[in-house]
Amino acid sequence: QVQLAESGGGLVQAGGSLRLSCAASGRTFSRNAVGWFRQAPGKERTFVAAIRWGLSISCYADAVRGRFTISRDNAKNTVYLQMNSLKPEDTAVYYCAASDSTQLRIPEMYDNWGQGTQVTVSS
What we know:
By secondary structure, this protein is mostly beta strands. The chain contains no helices and 11 strands.
């Protein structure tokens, strides 16, 4: 059982950057994938990006492709989400989660979630 903790959120101006971290405590990531999701007030939780842990193969939502980059540091048991060229519509609580499934875009396939970190982009 992996405990996940997000950090790195905050307030940023449109066009700015943030790097979110998803740190695993207790043991090394051993699940198939780690994903990032986000949820804005009044909206459903949506897929952002995911990485297949062992192979470092990534996928992205269309809305963030080219602006966000997911990466990992095995030694630190941490997955990162580098967010560049941020837009007001990126404002949301961002969650990381672990999954054994290869269906990386589906929230229901993730069974281990962090507490979330708030990202607010002002215009």
